[in-house]
Structure formats: C-alpha cells, structure tokens
Amino acid sequence: MAERNELRARVWQAISKLGDTHREILVLRDFHDLAYREISDVLSIPLGTVMSRLHAARKKLREILVAGEPMTASVTDPSGVGRPRRNEP
Amino acid sequence: MTEPRHDFDEALISGYLDGELTQGEAQRVRLHLEDCDRCRTMNEELKKLREATMTSEFQVPEDTGWDESPRSGLSRWLRNVGWIIGISWVVGFVAWLLWLVVTEAEDPLGITLAFGIVLAAGLILLSVLVDRLRSYRTDRYRRVKK
C-alpha cells in the first residue's frame, strides 16, 4: 500500500511538472476520457494537432518519470497505480 | 532488427493506443511496429504509461459548481435576455432618478452626492460585467459537458 501511494504521488508529481499545454491535453484525454474529436472542439485545434500534442505530452511525461530514478521501473507498471486525488500528497 | 522508413509519424502511435485511427492507419502502424525496434519499444512504454494515468482519477469540481451554469441553449438564451432586460431597466431607472434630481432639486450638494454614488455604483457594476465577459470569452472549457 505504501509503495502504491508513493507511486501515485510520483505520477502526479510528474504530471504537475508538465507545461500547461501538455498537462491540459493529457488530463482531457486520460482523466476525462474525451475522444480526439471532443478535445479538438474544446481546445479549438485540428484533429491532427490533438494527436501530435498528446503524443508529445506522453513522451514528456515519460522523460520526467525516467529522470526521476528510482521510480523508473515501477512507474511503467500500471498494476501499482490506484485512484489518486489531485490534492493528495 | 532494422529501423525501416523512418519518415513514419510516431504520433500515430498515440492515436493507435487510443483507438483513434482508421483501419488503414492502424494497419500501417501495426506493420511498422513489426519492423521497427525503436517504435515498438515506445509503443510498449506509452501503453503502460497510458494505462497508469487512465487508472488514476482526476478530481472534478463539486456539483454545485456545475449547477451555477445554464445547461441548455434555451436556458442560456433566456438568461442572457434576462440580463439584458434587467440591466436596461436599472440603467433607465437610474437615468430617470438622475433626471428628477437635476431638474427638481435646488441643492447643488445633493446633486453632486447623487451623481457620485451613482457613478461609483455604475463603475463597480461595469467592472464586474467586464470581468464576467472576459472570463466567459476566455474559458476554454465552457463547452465541456458534465
């Protein structure tokens, strides 16, 4: 449980380090589960830009997580991730 | 393994993971992943990362926060019309009161005080309206449904 909480905190910490543009699109897609078309409407950007921006955001998130050793190995294991709240540490 | 034809748009990998590609595009990605070590590794890593983020939960605003906004086009239209009529009524009523003060009162101090309070109230109201209008126009999420 302690490991799980630690992992949750690290994932959120990594997301908080993303720039506004990347964090915004990642939250809309992965947390609010919006389709690309809906994200395109909400942000008023072309569909292709949604895909490329989302991909860039995920790559950046991965870079941040990889840089934050020793979490690298565990963060790519989704089995340890619970359902964190934003305000949790 | 080789790294073939790397004019490949790697953003397609995210579209592939999200199930947002056409059948043709998805097939193209699958074929590319069979041949390209780098993209295959990226696909695996992003897949795990995506699963990790999607199993987390983003805290949404309280319901009361959503309830403050009109939910349909009709209610939004009615609310806007209500605002226009209300503001017009206030402006007209205040103008009429000022007209009475100016034309009927003989006390210059009374006129000055009346103008002062109306001007102050008007400016404050105007500042609120300007802020409301600005936040409405720049709110990128106003069309997001609950």
Question: What is this structure, in a nutshell?
Answer:
Chain A has helices at residues 2-17, 20-31, 36-43, 47-67, 72-75. Chain A is mainly alpha-helical.
How would you describe the overall organization of this protein?
The complex is a heterodimer of chains A (89) and B (146). Residues 71-89 of chain A have low confidence and may be disordered. Chain A has 89 residues and is mainly α. The longest helix of chain A has 21 residues, at 47-67. Chain A has helices at 2-17, 20-31, 36-43, 47-67, 72-75. Chain B is rod-shaped and about 95 Å long. Chain B has 146 residues and is mostly helical. The chains are: A mainly alpha (89), B mainly alpha (146). The interface between A and B is medium-sized, with 39 and 28 residues.
SSE blueprint and pairings:
The complex is a heterodimer of chains A (89) and B (146).
Chain A: H1 2-17, H2 20-31, H3 36-43, H4 47-67, H5 72-75
Chain B: H1 11-17, H2 23-35, H3 37-54, H4 63-67, H5 73-104, H6 108-138
Helix pairs in contact in B: 2-3, 5-6
Keywords:
heterodimer, A: 89 residues, mainly alpha, 69% helix, B: mainly alpha, 6 helices, rod-shaped
Using only C-alpha atoms, the radius of gyration of chain A works out to 14 Å
Percentage of residues in helical conformation of chain A: 55-70%
List unreliable stretches of 5+ residues of chain B: none
The largest β sheet of chain A comes out as: none
Large-scale geometry of chain B:
rod-shaped
Strand content of chain B: under 5%
Order of SSEs of chain B, N→C? HHHHHH
The share of residues in extended strands of chain A comes to: under 5%
Terminal Cα separation of chain B, in Å? 47 Å
Largest sheet of chain B: none
